[in-house]
Protein backbone atom coordinates (compact mmCIF):
# COMPACT_ATOMS: atom_id res chain seq x y z
CA UNK A 1 0.00 0.00 0.00
CA UNK A 2 1.38 3.37 -1.01
CA UNK A 3 0.36 6.74 0.30
CA UNK A 4 0.32 10.01 -1.58
CA UNK A 5 -0.36 13.62 -0.57
CA UNK A 6 -3.75 15.26 -1.15
CA UNK A 7 -1.75 18.21 -2.58
CA UNK A 8 0.85 16.35 -4.65
CA UNK A 9 0.08 13.05 -6.36
CA UNK A 10 3.77 12.65 -7.37
CA UNK A 11 4.61 11.87 -3.76
CA UNK A 12 4.63 8.22 -2.74
CA UNK A 13 5.56 6.76 0.67
CA UNK A 14 4.86 3.64 2.73
CA UNK A 15 2.71 3.75 5.87
CA UNK A 16 5.69 3.65 8.27
CA UNK A 17 7.10 6.84 6.75
CA UNK A 18 3.68 8.56 6.68
CA UNK A 19 3.07 7.74 10.36
CA UNK A 20 6.43 9.16 11.44
CA UNK A 21 6.00 12.32 9.36
CA UNK A 22 2.37 13.04 10.30
CA UNK A 23 1.74 15.64 7.59
CA UNK A 24 3.19 15.46 4.07
CA UNK A 25 6.07 17.91 3.46
CA UNK A 26 3.85 20.00 1.13
CA UNK A 27 1.32 20.54 3.95
CA UNK A 28 -1.10 18.02 2.42
CA UNK A 29 -2.56 14.95 4.12
CA UNK A 30 -1.49 11.42 3.32
CA UNK A 31 -4.11 9.26 1.58
CA UNK A 32 -3.85 5.66 0.36
CA UNK A 33 -3.47 5.39 -3.43
CA UNK A 34 -6.37 2.96 -3.47
CA UNK A 35 -8.90 1.96 -0.82
CA UNK A 36 -8.76 -1.77 0.00
CA UNK A 37 -11.92 -3.90 0.01
CA UNK A 38 -12.86 -5.89 3.11
CA UNK A 39 -12.80 -9.54 2.05
CA UNK A 40 -14.45 -11.29 4.98
CA UNK A 41 -18.13 -12.21 5.35
CA UNK A 42 -20.21 -10.44 7.98
CA UNK A 43 -21.18 -13.50 10.03
CA UNK A 44 -17.54 -14.53 10.49
CA UNK A 45 -16.54 -10.95 11.22
CA UNK A 46 -19.17 -10.65 13.95
CA UNK A 47 -17.42 -13.38 15.93
CA UNK A 48 -14.02 -11.65 15.99
CA UNK A 49 -12.73 -9.84 19.06
CA UNK A 50 -11.98 -6.13 18.71
CA UNK A 51 -8.26 -6.91 18.57
CA UNK A 52 -8.69 -9.60 15.89
CA UNK A 53 -10.80 -7.30 13.75
CA UNK A 54 -8.32 -4.44 14.26
CA UNK A 55 -5.57 -6.68 12.93
CA UNK A 56 -7.61 -7.69 9.86
CA UNK A 57 -8.37 -4.11 8.94
CA UNK A 58 -5.12 -2.42 9.88
CA UNK A 59 -2.94 -4.99 8.10
CA UNK A 60 -4.62 -3.81 4.87
CA UNK A 61 -3.46 -0.23 5.48
CA UNK A 62 -0.20 -0.76 7.37
CA UNK A 63 1.14 -3.57 5.19
CA UNK A 64 4.81 -2.63 5.56
CA UNK A 65 4.69 -3.50 9.28
CA UNK A 66 5.68 -7.13 9.89
CA UNK A 67 2.52 -8.97 11.01
CA UNK A 68 3.86 -9.99 14.42
CA UNK A 69 4.87 -6.41 15.17
CA UNK A 70 1.46 -5.06 14.18
CA UNK A 71 -0.17 -7.73 16.39
CA UNK A 72 2.00 -6.70 19.34
CA UNK A 73 1.06 -3.03 18.85
CA UNK A 74 -2.66 -3.89 18.80
CA UNK A 75 -2.44 -6.09 21.90
CA UNK A 76 -0.56 -3.37 23.79
CA UNK A 77 -3.12 -0.71 22.80
CA UNK A 78 -6.43 -2.46 23.44
CA UNK A 79 -5.86 -4.09 26.82
CA UNK A 80 -7.11 -3.57 30.40
CA UNK A 81 -6.71 0.19 29.94
CA UNK A 82 -10.23 -0.16 28.55
CA UNK A 83 -12.90 -0.84 31.15
CA UNK A 84 -15.02 -3.02 28.83
CA UNK A 85 -13.50 -6.03 27.11
CA UNK A 86 -15.53 -5.32 23.98
CA UNK A 87 -13.48 -2.05 23.80
CA UNK A 88 -16.28 -0.31 21.84
CA UNK A 89 -19.64 -1.67 23.04
CA UNK A 90 -22.93 -1.00 21.25
CA UNK A 91 -25.92 -0.34 23.51
CA UNK A 92 -29.55 -0.08 22.48
CA UNK A 93 -31.85 2.82 23.43
CA UNK A 94 -35.55 2.94 22.63
CA UNK A 95 -35.12 4.69 19.28
CA UNK A 96 -31.52 4.05 18.18
CA UNK A 97 -28.21 2.43 19.10
CA UNK A 98 -25.13 4.02 20.66
CA UNK A 99 -21.57 3.05 19.81
CA UNK A 100 -19.73 3.91 23.03
CA UNK A 101 -16.18 5.02 22.29
CA UNK A 102 -15.38 6.27 25.78
CA UNK A 103 -14.21 3.16 27.62
CA UNK A 104 -10.50 4.01 27.30
CA UNK A 105 -8.10 5.59 29.77
CA UNK A 106 -9.29 9.21 29.29
CA UNK A 107 -13.01 8.48 28.72
CA UNK A 108 -13.18 10.18 25.31
CA UNK A 109 -13.04 8.73 21.83
CA UNK A 110 -9.49 10.02 21.17
CA UNK A 111 -8.31 6.96 23.15
CA UNK A 112 -9.44 4.65 20.33
CA UNK A 113 -6.55 5.88 18.17
CA UNK A 114 -4.13 7.42 20.66
CA UNK A 115 -3.76 4.15 22.57
CA UNK A 116 -2.29 2.69 19.40
CA UNK A 117 -0.38 5.56 17.77
CA UNK A 118 2.68 5.57 20.10
CA UNK A 119 3.21 1.86 19.48
CA UNK A 120 2.87 2.37 15.72
CA UNK A 121 5.44 5.17 15.81
CA UNK A 122 7.97 3.09 17.73
CA UNK A 123 7.38 0.12 15.43
CA UNK A 124 7.69 2.31 12.31
CA UNK A 125 11.07 3.51 13.56
CA UNK A 126 12.17 -0.07 14.07
CA UNK A 127 11.07 -1.08 10.57
CA UNK A 128 12.91 1.89 9.04
CA UNK A 129 16.02 1.35 11.18
CA UNK A 130 15.79 4.71 12.96
CA UNK A 131 16.23 5.48 16.62
CA UNK A 132 15.93 9.23 17.07
CA UNK A 133 14.10 10.31 20.17
CA UNK A 134 10.55 11.31 19.18
CA UNK A 135 9.27 14.55 20.67
CA UNK A 136 5.52 15.00 20.33
CA UNK A 137 4.26 18.59 20.41
CA UNK A 138 0.53 19.09 20.90
CA UNK A 139 -1.76 22.04 21.40
CA UNK A 140 -5.06 20.85 22.84
CA UNK A 141 -8.51 22.23 23.44
CA UNK A 142 -8.98 19.54 26.09
CA UNK A 143 -9.37 15.92 25.03
CA UNK A 144 -6.45 15.29 22.68
CA UNK A 145 -3.74 16.45 25.08
CA UNK A 146 -4.72 14.10 27.84
CA UNK A 147 -5.32 11.14 25.54
CA UNK A 148 -1.95 11.70 23.84
CA UNK A 149 -0.12 11.93 27.19
CA UNK A 150 -1.81 8.76 28.38
CA UNK A 151 -0.80 7.02 25.14
CA UNK A 152 2.85 8.11 25.28
CA UNK A 153 3.25 7.75 29.06
CA UNK A 154 6.60 6.03 29.73
CA UNK A 155 7.01 4.88 26.11
CA UNK A 156 10.80 4.74 25.87
CA UNK A 157 12.46 6.98 23.34
CA UNK A 158 9.58 9.48 23.34
CA UNK A 159 8.67 12.73 25.09
CA UNK A 160 5.38 14.53 24.86
CA UNK A 161 4.78 18.23 25.48
CA UNK A 162 1.19 19.47 25.72
CA UNK A 163 -0.01 23.08 25.70
CA UNK A 164 -3.56 23.95 26.68
CA UNK A 165 -5.24 27.38 26.84
CA UNK A 166 -5.32 28.36 30.53
CA UNK A 167 -8.98 28.95 31.39
CA UNK A 168 -10.11 27.43 28.08
CA UNK A 169 -10.59 23.81 29.17
CA UNK A 170 -13.02 22.32 31.67
CA UNK A 171 -11.89 21.90 35.24
CA UNK A 172 -12.06 18.10 34.94
CA UNK A 173 -10.01 18.21 31.74
CA UNK A 174 -7.34 20.35 33.44
CA UNK A 175 -7.22 18.01 36.44
CA UNK A 176 -6.89 15.04 34.10
CA UNK A 177 -3.82 16.61 32.50
CA UNK A 178 -2.23 17.76 35.77
CA UNK A 179 -2.53 14.30 37.33
CA UNK A 180 -0.93 12.61 34.32
CA UNK A 181 1.86 10.20 35.24
CA UNK A 182 5.03 9.49 33.26
CA UNK A 183 8.53 11.00 33.43
CA UNK A 184 8.35 11.80 29.73
CA UNK A 185 5.11 13.83 29.85
CA UNK A 186 5.08 17.64 30.11
CA UNK A 187 2.07 19.94 30.28
CA UNK A 188 1.76 23.73 30.28
CA UNK A 189 -1.13 26.14 30.54
CA UNK A 190 -0.69 28.98 28.03
CA UNK A 191 -1.93 32.54 28.54
CA UNK A 192 -3.90 32.74 25.32
CA UNK A 193 -6.63 30.86 23.48
CA UNK A 194 -6.38 27.54 21.65
CA UNK A 195 -5.54 29.21 18.33
CA UNK A 196 -2.59 31.07 19.91
CA UNK A 197 -1.16 27.82 21.26
CA UNK A 198 -1.88 25.95 18.01
CA UNK A 199 -0.25 28.60 15.81
CA UNK A 200 2.87 28.59 17.96
CA UNK A 201 3.10 24.80 17.82
CA UNK A 202 2.84 24.92 14.01
CA UNK A 203 5.54 27.59 13.93
CA UNK A 204 7.86 25.43 16.04
CA UNK A 205 7.23 22.46 13.77
CA UNK A 206 8.29 24.50 10.75
CA UNK A 207 11.32 26.14 12.39
CA UNK A 208 14.33 24.92 10.38
CA UNK A 209 16.92 26.02 12.96
CA UNK A 210 15.13 24.21 15.73
CA UNK A 211 14.86 21.09 13.56
CA UNK A 212 18.62 21.20 12.95
CA UNK A 213 19.29 21.56 16.68
CA UNK A 214 17.09 18.57 17.40
CA UNK A 215 18.79 16.51 14.75
CA UNK A 216 22.19 17.30 16.24
CA UNK A 217 20.74 16.01 19.48
CA UNK A 218 19.49 12.83 17.77
CA UNK A 219 15.82 13.72 18.21
CA UNK A 220 12.94 14.87 16.00
CA UNK A 221 9.49 16.38 16.34
CA UNK A 222 6.42 14.40 15.47
CA UNK A 223 2.73 15.05 15.63
CA UNK A 224 -0.09 13.12 17.24
CA UNK A 225 -2.82 15.20 15.60
CA UNK A 226 -5.79 13.69 13.85
CA UNK A 227 -4.32 14.20 10.38
CA UNK A 228 -1.84 11.36 11.03
CA UNK A 229 -2.88 8.14 9.24
CA UNK A 230 -1.83 6.37 12.45
CA UNK A 231 -4.90 7.95 14.02
CA UNK A 232 -7.27 7.82 11.07
CA UNK A 233 -7.22 4.12 10.20
CA UNK A 234 -7.53 2.71 13.74
CA UNK A 235 -10.85 4.58 13.77
CA UNK A 236 -12.15 2.58 10.79
CA UNK A 237 -12.15 -0.57 12.94
CA UNK A 238 -15.03 0.36 15.24
CA UNK A 239 -17.46 0.99 12.36
CA UNK A 240 -16.99 -2.64 11.31
CA UNK A 241 -17.11 -3.77 14.91
CA UNK A 242 -20.40 -1.96 15.52
CA UNK A 243 -21.91 -3.71 12.50
CA UNK A 244 -20.72 -7.07 13.81
CA UNK A 245 -22.27 -6.43 17.21
CA UNK A 246 -25.67 -5.53 15.74
CA UNK A 247 -25.53 -8.75 13.75
CA UNK A 248 -24.63 -10.74 16.85
CA UNK A 249 -27.44 -9.11 18.83
CA UNK A 250 -29.89 -10.11 16.07
CA UNK A 251 -30.75 -6.46 15.37
CA UNK A 252 -29.83 -6.79 11.67
CA UNK A 253 -29.26 -9.49 9.04
CA UNK A 254 -25.95 -9.83 7.22
CA UNK A 255 -25.88 -7.28 4.40
CA UNK A 256 -28.56 -4.97 5.85
CA UNK A 257 -27.86 -1.26 5.61
CA UNK A 258 -27.15 0.79 8.74
CA UNK A 259 -26.45 4.50 9.21
CA UNK A 260 -24.15 6.35 11.58
CA UNK A 261 -24.51 9.83 13.09
CA UNK A 262 -21.17 11.27 14.16
CA UNK A 263 -20.54 14.31 16.39
CA UNK A 264 -17.99 16.11 14.25
CA UNK A 265 -15.18 18.59 14.79
CA UNK A 266 -12.02 18.02 12.80
CA UNK A 267 -13.81 15.47 10.55
CA UNK A 268 -11.51 12.59 11.53
CA UNK A 269 -14.04 10.26 13.12
CA UNK A 270 -16.67 10.55 10.38
CA UNK A 271 -14.04 10.28 7.66
CA UNK A 272 -13.08 6.89 9.10
CA UNK A 273 -16.75 5.94 8.60
CA UNK A 274 -16.47 7.01 4.97
CA UNK A 275 -13.44 4.74 4.50
CA UNK A 276 -15.42 1.88 6.10
CA UNK A 277 -18.21 2.46 3.57
CA UNK A 278 -15.75 2.58 0.66
CA UNK A 279 -14.25 -0.70 1.93
CA UNK A 280 -17.65 -2.35 1.53
CA UNK A 281 -19.37 -2.01 4.90
CA UNK A 282 -23.13 -1.63 4.20
CA UNK A 283 -23.51 1.96 5.37
CA UNK A 284 -26.42 3.96 3.98
CA UNK A 285 -25.57 7.54 5.01
CA UNK A 286 -23.20 9.20 7.43
CA UNK A 287 -24.83 12.08 9.28
CA UNK A 288 -22.31 14.83 10.01
CA UNK A 289 -23.54 16.38 13.27
CA UNK A 290 -22.45 19.92 14.23
CA UNK A 291 -23.19 22.21 17.16
CA UNK A 292 -23.72 25.99 16.83
CA UNK A 293 -20.51 26.14 14.81
CA UNK A 294 -22.33 25.18 11.61
CA UNK A 295 -19.53 25.46 9.07
CA UNK A 296 -19.86 21.79 8.00
CA UNK A 297 -23.66 21.87 7.99
CA UNK A 298 -23.53 24.88 5.66
CA UNK A 299 -20.91 23.16 3.52
CA UNK A 300 -22.93 19.99 2.97
CA UNK A 301 -26.03 21.98 2.21
CA UNK A 302 -24.53 24.61 -0.10
CA UNK A 303 -21.18 23.35 -1.42
CA UNK A 304 -19.52 26.46 0.04
CA UNK A 305 -16.97 26.23 2.84
CA UNK A 306 -16.67 29.57 4.62
CA UNK A 307 -14.64 29.96 7.79
CA UNK A 308 -15.28 33.74 7.97
CA UNK A 309 -17.68 33.64 10.89
CA UNK A 310 -17.60 34.02 14.68
CA UNK A 311 -16.23 31.14 16.71
CA UNK A 312 -18.91 30.04 19.20
CA UNK A 313 -18.17 28.45 22.55
CA UNK A 314 -20.60 25.61 23.33
CA UNK A 315 -21.17 22.83 25.87
CA UNK A 316 -19.63 20.44 23.28
CA UNK A 317 -16.19 22.12 23.11
CA UNK A 318 -14.42 19.35 21.19
CA UNK A 319 -16.65 20.23 18.23
CA UNK A 320 -16.01 23.99 18.41
CA UNK A 321 -14.04 24.43 15.21
CA UNK A 322 -14.02 26.53 12.06
CA UNK A 323 -11.47 24.68 9.95
CA UNK A 324 -12.04 20.91 9.83
CA UNK A 325 -8.66 19.67 8.67
CA UNK A 326 -9.63 16.15 7.67
CA UNK A 327 -12.28 17.41 5.25
CA UNK A 328 -9.35 17.87 2.85
CA UNK A 329 -9.25 14.10 2.38
CA UNK A 330 -12.93 13.95 1.41
CA UNK A 331 -12.40 16.83 -1.03
CA UNK A 332 -9.60 14.85 -2.63
CA UNK A 333 -12.05 12.04 -3.43
CA UNK A 334 -14.76 14.49 -4.43
CA UNK A 335 -12.57 16.10 -7.11
CA UNK A 336 -11.53 12.71 -8.53
CA UNK A 337 -8.15 12.53 -6.72
CA UNK A 338 -6.94 15.66 -8.51
CA UNK A 339 -4.24 16.94 -6.12
CA UNK A 340 -3.80 20.24 -7.96
CA UNK A 341 -7.51 21.01 -7.49
CA UNK A 342 -7.21 20.26 -3.76
CA UNK A 343 -4.15 22.46 -3.51
CA UNK A 344 -6.05 25.35 -5.13
CA UNK A 345 -9.06 24.92 -2.84
CA UNK A 346 -6.84 24.85 0.26
CA UNK A 347 -4.99 27.96 -0.93
CA UNK A 348 -8.34 29.73 -1.36
CA UNK A 349 -9.37 28.72 2.16
CA UNK A 350 -6.06 29.96 3.55
CA UNK A 351 -5.95 33.25 1.63
CA UNK A 352 -9.61 34.20 1.24
CA UNK A 353 -11.25 32.20 4.00
CA UNK A 354 -13.67 30.30 1.73
CA UNK A 355 -14.13 28.15 -1.37
CA UNK A 356 -17.06 26.99 -3.50
CA UNK A 357 -17.47 23.61 -5.18
CA UNK A 358 -19.26 22.99 -8.48
CA UNK A 359 -22.46 20.89 -8.82
CA UNK A 360 -20.75 17.83 -10.33
CA UNK A 361 -18.33 17.65 -7.43
CA UNK A 362 -21.08 17.96 -4.85
CA UNK A 363 -22.61 14.71 -6.12
CA UNK A 364 -19.70 12.90 -4.46
CA UNK A 365 -21.08 13.97 -1.10
CA UNK A 366 -24.20 11.81 -1.40
CA UNK A 367 -22.88 9.58 1.36
CA UNK A 368 -23.27 12.45 3.83
CA UNK A 369 -26.07 14.48 5.37
CA UNK A 370 -25.20 17.63 7.31
CA UNK A 371 -27.27 18.47 10.39
CA UNK A 372 -26.83 20.63 13.47
CA UNK A 373 -28.23 20.99 16.95
CA UNK A 374 -28.16 24.27 18.86
CA UNK A 375 -27.48 24.56 22.58
CA UNK A 376 -31.12 24.39 23.68
CA UNK A 377 -31.82 21.39 21.45
CA UNK A 378 -28.75 19.61 22.76
CA UNK A 379 -29.75 20.13 26.40
CA UNK A 380 -33.30 19.04 25.61
CA UNK A 381 -31.96 15.87 24.00
CA UNK A 382 -29.92 14.98 27.10
CA UNK A 383 -33.09 15.40 29.15
CA UNK A 384 -35.35 13.49 26.74
CA UNK A 385 -33.06 10.47 26.57
CA UNK A 386 -32.56 10.53 30.33
CA UNK A 387 -36.30 10.55 30.92
CA UNK A 388 -37.11 7.93 28.30
CA UNK A 389 -34.18 5.54 28.75
CA UNK A 390 -32.58 6.52 32.05
CA UNK A 391 -29.36 6.98 30.06
CA UNK A 392 -27.18 10.04 30.59
CA UNK A 393 -25.40 11.25 27.43
CA UNK A 394 -22.50 13.64 27.27
CA UNK A 395 -23.17 16.87 25.30
CA UNK A 396 -21.21 15.77 22.18
CA UNK A 397 -23.21 12.57 21.92
CA UNK A 398 -26.39 14.56 22.53
CA UNK A 399 -25.63 16.86 19.58
CA UNK A 400 -25.47 13.78 17.36
CA UNK A 401 -28.55 12.21 18.89
CA UNK A 402 -30.56 15.40 18.33
CA UNK A 403 -29.29 15.64 14.74
CA UNK A 404 -30.36 12.07 14.04
CA UNK A 405 -33.88 12.98 15.15
CA UNK A 406 -33.97 15.77 12.56
CA UNK A 407 -32.93 13.68 9.54
CA UNK A 408 -34.20 10.21 10.40
CA UNK A 409 -36.81 10.16 7.64
CA UNK A 410 -34.00 10.42 5.06
CA UNK A 411 -32.18 7.33 6.36
CA UNK A 412 -32.38 3.58 5.69
CA UNK A 413 -31.72 0.80 8.20
CA UNK A 414 -30.87 0.80 11.89
CA UNK A 415 -29.39 4.02 13.25
CA UNK A 416 -26.22 4.16 15.32
CA UNK A 417 -25.15 7.32 17.12
CA UNK A 418 -21.42 7.47 17.74
CA UNK A 419 -20.93 8.36 21.41
CA UNK A 420 -17.64 10.15 21.91
CA UNK A 421 -17.36 10.99 25.62
CA UNK A 422 -18.49 9.85 29.04
CA UNK A 423 -20.98 12.12 30.86
CA UNK A 424 -18.49 12.16 33.76
CA UNK A 425 -16.22 14.29 31.61
CA UNK A 426 -18.74 17.14 31.30
CA UNK A 427 -20.73 16.92 34.54
CA UNK A 428 -21.82 20.56 34.84
CA UNK A 429 -23.47 20.75 31.41
CA UNK A 430 -25.05 17.33 31.78
CA UNK A 431 -26.57 18.09 35.19
CA UNK A 432 -27.89 21.45 34.06
CA UNK A 433 -29.67 19.74 31.18
CA UNK A 434 -31.58 17.47 33.53
CA UNK A 435 -32.40 20.37 35.86
CA UNK A 436 -29.95 19.29 38.52
CA UNK A 437 -27.34 21.96 37.87
CA UNK A 438 -25.95 24.20 40.58
CA UNK A 439 -23.08 26.58 39.92
CA UNK A 440 -21.93 26.31 43.55
CA UNK A 441 -21.07 22.62 43.37
CA UNK A 442 -17.41 21.58 43.55
CA UNK A 443 -16.00 19.14 40.99
CA UNK A 444 -16.38 16.31 43.44
CA UNK A 445 -19.99 17.21 44.18
CA UNK A 446 -20.71 17.46 40.44
CA UNK A 447 -19.30 14.00 39.87
CA UNK A 448 -21.29 12.61 42.78
CA UNK A 449 -24.44 14.13 41.32
CA UNK A 450 -23.80 12.52 37.92
CA UNK A 451 -23.26 9.22 39.66
CA UNK A 452 -26.51 9.60 41.58
CA UNK A 453 -28.30 10.37 38.30
CA UNK A 454 -27.02 7.49 36.18
CA UNK A 455 -26.22 4.97 38.88
CA UNK A 456 -22.90 3.97 37.28
CA UNK A 457 -19.57 3.49 39.03
CA UNK A 458 -16.89 6.08 38.42
CA UNK A 459 -14.76 5.17 35.44
CA UNK A 460 -11.10 4.53 36.25
CA UNK A 461 -10.17 7.93 34.73
CA UNK A 462 -12.33 9.72 37.31
CA UNK A 463 -11.10 7.55 40.15
CA UNK A 464 -7.58 8.51 39.10
CA UNK A 465 -8.08 12.26 39.24
CA UNK A 466 -9.74 11.96 42.63
CA UNK A 467 -6.84 9.95 44.05
CA UNK A 468 -3.70 11.03 42.19
CA UNK A 469 -1.54 13.96 43.23
CA UNK A 470 -1.60 16.94 40.92
CA UNK A 471 1.72 18.11 39.57
CA UNK A 472 2.42 21.80 40.18
CA UNK A 473 0.65 23.85 37.56
CA UNK A 474 2.91 25.70 35.11
CA UNK A 475 1.38 28.60 33.23
CA UNK A 476 3.49 30.40 30.63
CA UNK A 477 3.23 33.16 28.03
CA UNK A 478 2.92 32.16 24.36
CA UNK A 479 6.40 33.67 23.84
CA UNK A 480 7.88 31.24 26.38
CA UNK A 481 6.70 28.11 24.54
CA UNK A 482 9.81 27.93 22.38
CA UNK A 483 12.12 28.14 25.41
CA UNK A 484 10.42 25.33 27.31
CA UNK A 485 10.41 23.13 24.21
CA UNK A 486 14.17 23.69 23.78
CA UNK A 487 14.86 22.91 27.43
CA UNK A 488 12.82 19.72 27.42
CA UNK A 489 14.29 18.58 24.10
CA UNK A 490 17.82 18.96 25.47
CA UNK A 491 17.21 17.59 28.95
C1 LIG B 1 -12.46 15.14 19.18
C2 LIG B 1 -13.88 14.94 19.61
C3 LIG B 1 -14.94 15.03 18.69
C4 LIG B 1 -14.73 15.40 17.24
O1 LIG B 1 -14.09 14.40 16.50
P1 LIG B 1 -13.40 14.73 15.10
O2 LIG B 1 -12.70 13.49 14.71
O3 LIG B 1 -12.43 15.86 15.39
O4 LIG B 1 -14.47 15.14 14.15
C5 LIG B 1 -16.22 14.79 19.14
N1 LIG B 1 -16.47 14.51 20.45
C6 LIG B 1 -15.47 14.42 21.35
C7 LIG B 1 -15.82 14.14 22.77
C8 LIG B 1 -14.15 14.62 20.97
O5 LIG B 1 -13.17 14.54 21.90
From TrEMBL:
The modification N6-(pyridoxal phosphate)lysine is found at residue 110. Its EC number is 4.2.3.1. Its cofactor is pyridoxal 5'-phosphate. It comes from the Bacteria. One of its GO terms (molecular function) is threonine synthase activity. Residues 99-418 form the Tryptophan synthase beta chain-like PALP domain. The keyword Lyase applies. Residues 3-78 form the Threonine synthase N-terminal domain. GO terms for cellular component: cytoplasm. It is an enzyme of class 4 (lyase). Transmembrane segments: none annotated. InterPro entries: Thr_synth_N (IPR029144), Thr_synth_N_sf (IPR037158), Thr_synthase-like (IPR004450), TrpB-like_PALP (IPR001926), TrpB-like_PALP_sf (IPR036052). One of its GO terms (biological process) is threonine biosynthetic process. Belongs to the threonine synthase family. This is Threonine synthase. It comes from Aerococcus urinae.
Amino acid sequence: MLYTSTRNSQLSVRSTEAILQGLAPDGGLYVPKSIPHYQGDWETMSKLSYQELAFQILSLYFDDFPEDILQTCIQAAYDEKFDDDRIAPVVGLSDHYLLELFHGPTIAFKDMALSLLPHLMKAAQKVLGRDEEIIILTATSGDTGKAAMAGFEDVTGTKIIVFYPKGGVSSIQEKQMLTQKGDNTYVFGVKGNFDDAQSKVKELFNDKDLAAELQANHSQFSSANSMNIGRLFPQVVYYFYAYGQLLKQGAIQAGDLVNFTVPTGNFGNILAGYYAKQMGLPIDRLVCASNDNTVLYDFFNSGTYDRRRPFKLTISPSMDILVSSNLERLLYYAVGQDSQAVKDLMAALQDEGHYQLGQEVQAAFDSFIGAYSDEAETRAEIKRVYQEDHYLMDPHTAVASACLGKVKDQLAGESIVVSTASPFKFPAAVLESIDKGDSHLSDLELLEAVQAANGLDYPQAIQAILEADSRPERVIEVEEMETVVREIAKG
